Amino acid sequence: MRILITILLVASSYLQMSAQLGVARSVDPASLGQGSILPLQGGRYQPLGNPAVLGMRGPTEVGAYVVQPFGLNDLAISYVHGAFHSGWGGLGAGIGYSGLNGFRSTTAHLAYGHALWNRLFAGLSLDGAFIDLSDYGHTSSIGLSGGVILPIREALRLGILIRYPFAITTQGKQDLPVSYQATLSYELNAALSVSVEWYQEEQFKPDFRLGVTYSPIPQVPIRLGYQSLLNQFSVGAGYRWKERLILDIAGGHHPFLGFTPSAGLRYTFLR
Predict the structure, then answer these.
(1) What stretches of the chain show up as alpha helix (H) in DSSP?
(2) How far apart are the C-alpha atoms of 146 and 189, rounded to whole Å?
(3) Up-side HSE of residue 115: CA atoms within 13 Å toward CB?
(4) 19 in helix, strand or coil?
(5) What is the pLDDT of residue 23?
(6) Is the pLDDT at 114 greater than 50, yes or no?
(7) Does an H or E element contain 24, and which?
(8) How far is it, in rounded angstroms, from Cα 149 to Cα 42?
(9) C-beta of residue 215 within 8 angstroms of C-beta of residue 17
(10) What global pTM score does this model have?
């Protein structure tokens, strides 16, 4: 059972890592927008993903999270990440590290994006994941993502992403399925936004995701999320202090791991 749970976590982490690197990304854990490979938490639904993903400008930041599945005390997941965004053009880069007993994962990405005709934004991202399973050896994956972000109306945006991954395992080279994502995001007002996402990997069932963010005050967003593939629910709330420090708590329900709370902290370096 422990091996099965570990494999499920690795698979979920890889899926979420690929999702984070695109214009359409599922609910993140506690972030007010930064990317994470943690798959279980409620967070602000950000269809634009991590600003560095496709070269969109954003802050330079560092962050850390801890996730603890109930009933699996020795499987707590830790995650740290950093992102750098250049002061020119649309160049961005990021790196992250996560781990639990018998599992270590390092992810990184390099992206460049550009606005076209003062309306359409297009970008490319080169990303990699390096996974170490104590009983199964090492696995590395490198993928290329390409996507566009199209404002349909002032409050309505459409994001489309295609990711083509490659994998190298201990048994030799093995192709991974191509993934497709599309997200429609609508900001009803300054306090309320709704996003709907479709995620599809070749030879697998599609995953439909819903995210809602409500901010009773600008510093405190409350987030709800749902993913259809594994029937996952999530909720999260955060607090932003002086636009630099963000504290967040979140929790999700996973069909295999049960209730899974998390806590996160992120610091942003002002430009």
Answers:
(1) 2-20
(2) 30
(3) 7
(4) helix
(5) 28
(6) yes
(7) none
(8) 24
(9) no
(10) 0.72
Which residue reads 């990021």 in tokens?
A: 94
Which amino acid is residue 107, in one-letter code?
A: T
Average pLDDT of the residues in 184-196: 84
Q: Which of 148, 141, 68, 124 is nearest to 101 (CA)?
A: 68
Beta bridge partners of 111: 92, 125
| Paired tokens of 38 | 């943690």
**Which region among 69-83, 141-155, 192-206 has the lowest average model confidence (pLDDT)?**
69-83
CATH number at residue 190: 2.40.160.40
DSSP state of 75: G
Residues, the chain: 271
Mean pLDDT of 60-84: 68
Which tens digit of pLDDT belongs to each residue from 213-236? 888 888 888 888 888 887 877 788
Do 80 and 107 contact (CB within 8 A), yes or no?
Answer: no
Domain assignment of residue 251, given as a range:
2-269
- Per-chain mean pLDDT for the chain: 68
What is the C-alpha separation between 132 and 239, in angstroms, rounded? 34
User: Do 250 and 221 meet the contact criterion of CB atoms below 8 Å apart?
Assistant: no
> Phi and psi (nearest 5°) for 218?
-55, -30
**Are 256 and 47 within 8 A, CB to CB?**
no
Number of domains in the chain: 1
Say if CB 266 and CB 61 are below 8 A apart.
yes
